[in-house]
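User: quick one, sequence for these tokens?
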């Protein structure tokens, strides 16, 4: 059996101020750099991305792998045409070359599912159209997805099955890649397509309500498992949607795959009914910065209090450089450490000054024009390179460029030259900060931080400081959503 493996991953924020360019794929922060066919297997096998799980599963089953290209860029604004076309051309050209070398039994693609590109709002649907055109109608195509995928009818139509991660934080990326490979082999051996059922959900689900570690989503996923088992479907894929994209196919969706149409329809319909039944449970508490910082300072906990700066989440399209929460920490003189402020200019100034120096910085605010003018002491410098070790990104290399740990009053801040989401202890440890020993930890993240930081935290407070990854999607100026979409759970504000 011979199977091609490749990938193209991006999560696009239609309203983010900075687009995603070709250079962003070349140096993607805490994820692997682009891989071409000659490097894909060795370049990804030991990482934490879904393709690593697919590669390991294929090798375990004795499958011959035809490597394609793979690329990832950190979430930001829509992907510019040049970048989309170059990566898509890599994959399609590699696929053509692989077919020249011999027939393929199947194709596995490692996709995110929420990519918006210039000219192609459903970028994965367009990529699958191109791959299908080259592969032909009979070669099975199976994709792993991030559950923040905006799962579209075109994506379902142009593939044989789609399987999203089951967790948020995404601690099962490798397992999902392996499951996708096993499902693809099942489809190949089956010799005919799965029957499929596709359903869309007509309300946005806020990012902060999607965490599978806590109710209601933990309970919804338990019921999803039972529904899939009861109806005997091969896959009951559930995607939350990415509530910062703006095109008609956006939103929560379900794709069920079974041996007969009745079972696929029954599983999809039962799970759809469950989501509507639980709709009002998906609201969550979010605090303003002044209250969150005050509560953290007044805590008598012996373990850290974690503040999640959700609206500047680099994993959702934020730039990782807004200073609203930092300003409040400084104003209240909190004994805290903030990871991170993405500001290459300030990082360079710290390196020029050296450890122990005092520097004046116009810190952060490059994306929104609201920097914080500070006088800081440079405590520690680094090249920003480390390897993640946590449950979500373990094995992934990080390269954040010249970085520094600075102190502003009682507040310490990690300053980097490239953005990453704060989901791993190594972000702090590589600059000499032990997270378990802190009183207050402020993080640029919405949910992924919980995989590593929730177990050490006494409390987790979600904070709504200024930033583009708004906690309430209804505040965004949507123009292209399909009629009938409700902009928050249980809301009366409907797109008309």
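Assistant:
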């Amino acid at each position: 059996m011979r199977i091609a493996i490749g990938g193209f991953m991006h999560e696009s924020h239609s309203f983010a101020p900075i687009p995603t360019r070709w250079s962003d794929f070349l140096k993607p922060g805490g994820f692997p750099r682009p891989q071409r066919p000659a490097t894909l297997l060795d370049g990804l096998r030991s990482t934490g991305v879904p393709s690593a799980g697919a590669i390991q599963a294929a090798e375990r089953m004795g499958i011959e792998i035809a490597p394609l290209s793979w690329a990832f860029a950190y979430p930001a604004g829509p992907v510019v045409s040049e970048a989309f076309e170059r990566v898509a051309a890599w994959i399609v050209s590699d696929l053509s070359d692989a077919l020249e070398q011999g027939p393929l039994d199947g194709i596995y693609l490692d996709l995110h599912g929420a990519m918006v590109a210039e000219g192609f709002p459903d970028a994965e649907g367009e990529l699958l159209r191109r791959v299908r055109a080259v592969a032909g109608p009979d070669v099975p195509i199976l994709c792993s997805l991030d559950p923040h995928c905006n799962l579209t009818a075109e994506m379902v139509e142009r593939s044989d099955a789609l399987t999203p991660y089951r967790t948020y934080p995404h601690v099962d990326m490798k397992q999902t890649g392996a499951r996708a490979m096993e499902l693809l082999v099942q489809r190949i051996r089956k010799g005919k397509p799965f029957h499929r059922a596709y359903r869309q959900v007509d309300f946005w689900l806020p990012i902060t309500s999607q965490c599978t570690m806590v109710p209601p989503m933990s309970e919804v996923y338990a019921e999803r498992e039972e529904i899939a088992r009861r109806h005997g479907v091969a896959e009951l894929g559930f995607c939350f949607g990415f509530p910062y994209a703006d095109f008609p196919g956006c939103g929560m969706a379900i794709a069920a795959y079974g041996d007969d149409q009745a079972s696929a329809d029954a599983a999809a319909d039962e799970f759809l009914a469950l989501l509507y039944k639980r709709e009002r449970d998906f609201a969550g508490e979010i605090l303003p910065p002044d209250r969150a910082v005050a509560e953290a300072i007044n805590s008598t906990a012996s373990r850290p209090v974690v503040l999640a700066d959700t609206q500047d989440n680099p994993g959702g399209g934020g730039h990782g450089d807004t200073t609203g929460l930092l300003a409040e920490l400084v104003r209240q003189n909190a004994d805290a450490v903030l990871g991170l402020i993405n500001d290459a200019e300030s990082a360079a100034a710290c390196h020029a000054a050296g450890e122990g120096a005092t520097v004046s910085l116009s810190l952060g605010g490059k994306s929104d024009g609201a920097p914080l003018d500070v006088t800081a002491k440079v405590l520690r410098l680094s090249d920003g390179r480390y390897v993640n070790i946590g449950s979500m990104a373990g094995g992934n290399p990080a390269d954040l460029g010249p970085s520094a740990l600075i102190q502003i009053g009682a507040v310490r801040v990690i300053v980097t030259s490239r953005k990453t989401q704060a989901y791993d202890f190594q972000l702090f440890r590589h600059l000499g900060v032990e997270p378990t020993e802190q009183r207050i930890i402020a993080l640029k993240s919405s949910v992924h931080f919980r995989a590593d930081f929730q177990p050490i935290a006494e409390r987790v407070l979600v904070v709504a400081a200024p930033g583009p990854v708004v906690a309430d999607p209804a505040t965004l100026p949507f123009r292209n959503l399909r009629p009938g979409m409700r902009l928050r759970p249980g809301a009366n504000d409907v797109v008309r």
